[in-house]
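Consider the following assembly input.
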Amino acid sequence: MANSPTLSGPSGAKPRPFITPQRFVVYSVLIVCAVFFLFPLYIMIITSLKNIQEIQGGNIFVPTMSPTLDAWEKAWNSACTGLYCEGIKVGLWNSIKITVPSTIVSIAVASVTGYSLANWPFKFSEVFFAVLLLANFIPYIVMLYPLVIITSKMGIYSTLPAVILVHTIFGLPVQTLLFRNYFASLPQELFKAARVDGAGYWGIFFQIFVPMATPIFTVSIILQVTGIWNDFLFGVIFAGPTNYPMTVQLNNIVNSATGGKAYNVDMAATILTGLVPLTIYFVSGKYFVRGIAAGAVKG
Amino acid sequence: MDRPNPLFRNLNSKFAALPMMLIVLVVFVGGTLWTVLFSFTNIKIVPIFSPKEWIDGFVGFANYTRLFNTDRWMNCPIITHIGQSDWKASCTGALPNVATYAVLSVTLSIGLGFLLAVMMDQKIRAEGVFRTIYLYPFALSFIVTGHVWAWIMSPEYGLQHAIREMGWTSFTFDWIADRQMVMYAIVIAGIWQGTGFVMALMLAGLRGIDEDIWKAARVDGIPAWRTYIQIVLPMMRPVMVTTFVIVAAGAVRVYDLVVALTDGGPGIASDVPTRYVYQNFSANLGQSLAASTVMLATMAVVLIPWIRMEFSKKRT
Amino acid sequence: MATSVSVQNLTLKFGSAEVLKNLNLDVEEGEFIVLLGPSGCGKSTLLNCLAGLLELSEGQIHIKGKNVTWAEPSERGIGMVFQSYALYPQMTVRGNMSFGLKIAGMPKDQIEQRVQRASEILQIGPLLDRKPGALSGGQRQRVAIGRALVREVDVFLFDEPLSNLDAKLRSELRVELKRLHNRLKNTMIYVTHDQIEALTLADRIAIMRGGIIQQLDEPHTIYNRPANLFVAGFIGSPAMNFIKGATTNGGRIFQSGEINLDLSQYEGGAVMDRSKAIIGLRPEHITIVDAAIPGQTIPAVVEIDEPMGADSLVWLLVDGRQMSVRVPFEHRPKAGTPVHLKVDIAKSSLFDETNELRI
């Protein structure tokens, strides 16, 4: 449903001579908002560089005079996540183990299904498409208990395969729509030409469409990786304590502190958890915008 | 040569779509139906779908009655006195909480997002920098967002403490610890996370508007703000509807943010339906399923404007 | 000559809508057939059915005597050229042209031979290692034709191949297509909405509307003897003038208000008396004269004229209705002058208004 926005050139009112009252207002609003949006990032960073005395005695706004990476070291290596005190690095590795397979499998299935829906319509494919569209909006929680039962019956509940399966499943509707819309937007004559040339279902997919689909693969990888990385609920329910992803570990670190809260460690762990999606965001730029717009319908 | 059996036509395509169809059928359709159906039973242990279990356990709307009589779900002491101006404010519980959160976060993030998009559309300098700044929170997990804001809003060490230390000793900002205000604290974090996204969608919508509209409005001497409100805004209806549905759908199922920011506290003052459903899975399955179904119904209501838009698009 | 493509009782439904209605068409071997009609008339749909890209609801298609109704597109012995060129963007020109042959499992040297031959014919040799993105529109369409050519099939299908090109290039490629047809002598079925293309290229034109072939004839016949009111109005630019009236005196007079035209020279069927008739006059079959001639002229007042280079199109008012006449530029009358229009009845078309058919 969401069109990929293209952020090509401004189209608003024409520029006027440099400083006018209007422009002053415009820039003021933009800058005030920018401060609001940057504020937590600033706090996160300076807090993570403080030592515990500065946290308890000091001012949240004021950066430390003697920055230390101790909190980072602790967050990474030895912060306690409930039973274990091995830091958030365990979670990082788990998150990778969860994210990579779920991303690959869901994109593989979704791209083929999207291609089927766009180019090889069958009976009920329209109905199927409509169901997919609505499936995106069903709150996950509604299907969670049935999935617990299903994974229990399969004997994988509370293991890595379970959480991978669940992520794959919930990634599928939006990914399929993404690919379906992309393939439907390619010129249909290309598809016809390939059929006249004798290419079949898989031939057209692999030789004609996949090479043309780099943008949409990029968008869907970004979407899927960030989505799975940032998930909390499925990790808690399906992964089992040994496989908890980074978000769950972070939550545990923050909540399991004994004695005074080590906010510097918490913030270091928080930054570490946000680092992967943030890096993807800064590197991918416009693809990220397209991805979130396209994937925003995700449950 | 005879007409080939349509069943075998595009066989590859059917095979390739099969896994997906099974998943949709079993998990999305099946799972949802299962939840809805078993919300009418008193089932307690892990059930499977068998008609017998369902019939044996059928209790009608009992789970719903109990759910709405549970204070943690919804408690509106003055609701019998509808007509008094403050009856809404007196409601507490997961459902009123999510209503407060959804109404405020949707209105504010769409309002602020549109405003920012309009500002961004004024041929400003460093547009890319501003966009990057507004949008980066959206890349972060709700868990990350929640913990950062929990730290900032912490009365002991956060903003309140810092400002008091600077000399304004009576300054109070303890929403996170205040039963009356805690939902507004969550709204702030939600807006911080989601406004950039709304801005990006709105900006894309603004940029999609025909350049000639602006020229025509200028030739007609219509001031820019009027053009935005009277011409551009109506033209952006589809973008608005899409954005509304997406943001509202997200707000209805808010969970991670609450877990990280307040964990439902103080007490259960910031409990939300998803959390309620999850926490009742083992102790109170029937009610939990009933609560899920209520969420599903809420989502259906949110979807109405979008479905109507899609429907009218098809007809024209 | 043998029949190359034969369509029998073809019906195509999308849901409950009949897009093609019980259509029959026989194309001779080596013939250049143009399917012409307004958008939505079913011409492209028919072509897609011939190619096997759409499944018929009823009927049969034979190509070279073989029933291909249910055959895959690649098994039908056809090559196809599309409006948007439909070149595979990630492959070079050579890759595009050889893709189908590779799939068919043809040996490499043979593929290369065919590609060379086709690229010579189309003069695209120097482009073989470029990607479509680096080519101009005209070059792309040549490559697309080349892709059809290497298949060395008997039937070529063209789906508005020139519509995406600018006017100059379009007329150049039009001539080239005609040359190609003269050289290869393949059967060509060509869809267009451009009547100039149709009139210049076709051996026969099939005019379509509402999923039905309205008239299938040589261009000359279509132009001069349109089978019905639709064909008459569709073909010809500027369009044919129509005057509503009646035929009287045993079909010897066409009468409309003050106008009386003598029909004795009319070259159609038996006119008879019809209370509702329409006469169609092409702008170039009318001349402007100073004095009225009984039974041959129509009184009119000049409104405006549109100079078109060699000619001028003069718009006149007849009885409050507009008519157009094509006159040599230097003979164009001044606006506001009352004139008389001399009608060439032998070249006119009479229609019965009730069934819209030519009399």
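Chain C has a mean pLDDT of 90. Ask yourself how this observation constrains the way the partners meet.
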